[in-house]
Input
Amino acid sequence: MRRILTSKWFIIVSVVVLLLAFILLGLVPGSPIKYLYKPFGAILSPIQSVVKDTGNAFSDFWSAVTDGMAIRRENEELRAQIADLQYQLTQNEEAGIRYEELRDAFQIKDTFSNYDVYGASIVSREADEWFSVIRISSGVNDGIEVIPGQSLAVVDSSMNLIGRVIETSSSESKILPLLHEGFVVSAKINEVNGVIVTVSGDASLKFQGLCLVSGFSSDDVIEVGTEIVTSGNGGLFPQGIPIGVIESVDYSNPLNVTATLRPYSQIGDLKDVFIMIPQADAIPPADEDVASSETTATAGE
Amino acid sequence: MNLSVEKKILIRKIIVYVIFTLLFSCFQVSFPNRLTLFGQVADLMLVYVILVGYFFGFADGAVVGIIVGFIRDYFAGPSFTDSQGNVTASIGIGMLMMFIAASISSSFFTKRMNRNAAFAFVCVIFCTICYKVTGHLIMAAVMQFFSRTSYNLSFYQIVVNSILPTLLLNVIIAGPMILVLRFIGPYSKGVNPSLSKNFLSGGDDLWLRT
Output
């Protein structure tokens, strides 16, 4: 008996069975197993943050040494740009005042006026092509909470879509990036009465940093360079968040015309992101039929 | 060997493993962009676990593998979307993969090749291929049965876009990592003394033999 218990085959099989049970239990909604990670997170996150900051400090120092000449040139160009932008700013201030007056007069609604935007830093990134969830530094304590049936859009500083929040803890949240196979969002061509399509992550296109666009009819004329934005269908994501531009179109199957989309934002280049949280009075009344069909149709959104 | 020397060896082992495990894991999830080729990332965590298993045996490899896998799950655990569109971030898969990688590497011709450094590259190549193939099979199964969608990667894409770039990157980072584990690793002279004892008694290296 003792020989069996100390046999390495027995140890391997036992550990594998235990880990498989652990994985299955972890998939159950509300599983207590997820809480096991909390105390370790309090240790791991600060350590990871130190490693990240140290790496960034080295990188910044190296950049300061190597990029001196380039920075000087860039500085001169930026001075010229600042002068130009100062002039534009004055013009835009006047236009802004006009817009405010017109908005009040015509009761125009701002696209994202019903959303609060919270900033967060990217804490950790994907480890490989499958371990691809990204952690950010804001959580429930910062007012970010994922309610079942609701989805929080994550955007960059230019309001381009980069992913969605899938899970939150007290001080951190997990983001599903736009390129992930599991990401799906209802979108439309950015024009009046633009065609409604579905943008989704795709295993084969992910390598090239592209997404799949489907849902076109054979009559639709799609041009390369066309901008795609969120459609707002279902009320889960706000309408009009820019996603990217069409890179190529595949008409080979008239019954299933698809296109590839190059997202505006590549999450690998970002350090900070913004989460769009609907204000309490902005959440539309639940329409059971619409909500359930959209969750299925748009899956990720 | 007196007790104080044994204690010193144990303390050194624990400290070095803790430092390396945290350093490699945190570096992996903090700066993946520095280690990329054709959209693939060099897998510091996987290579580290493979090399620990290969050089220092099953016990060390298994423990380090489970801890590294735990950290991998915590920072960047994989997520799955079901047919209803609900996304679940899973936990435990990293631990399982890393434990199996350590188990394989700790018995990968370790007796025949006497755990020599040059053959460690072959071990890294073999284990990386196993990891990638298993990963693609799991993803295909999950997407087929869990998400109800098809995994549309062709064999050519899997080989050229996924396996080969990772293989190349992992072999490149294995070089410095072998030197680190050999010369400033958990054991002086890069040799686990308990393995030497087991070796003489036909122990650790023979564990997968029937």
About this structure: The first helix of chain B runs from residue 3 to 30. The CA atoms of residues 155 and 161 of chain B lie 10 Å apart.
